[in-house]
Predict the structure.
Amino acid sequence: MEFGDRLFWGIMVFIGINLFWLGMLEEYLPMWVGAIVGIIAVLAIIRFVPRPRTEESNGGE
């Protein structure tokens, strides 16, 4: 995935985590904890999702 793809999916995961948190977990933990979890997920997606491999040329062929 290119950087833009990883950023897009990171933002989508952030929104999904926060909506889940708002619907299910806000009674037990405040919303700012969900935001921190979402930010950690975005950074993990950007950092650990594999980058595309570039093909190296074989001696000018």
About this structure: The chain has one domain: 3-48. Residues 3-48 form one domain. The longest helix spans residues 3-25. The CA atoms of residues 16 and 38 lie 8 Å apart.
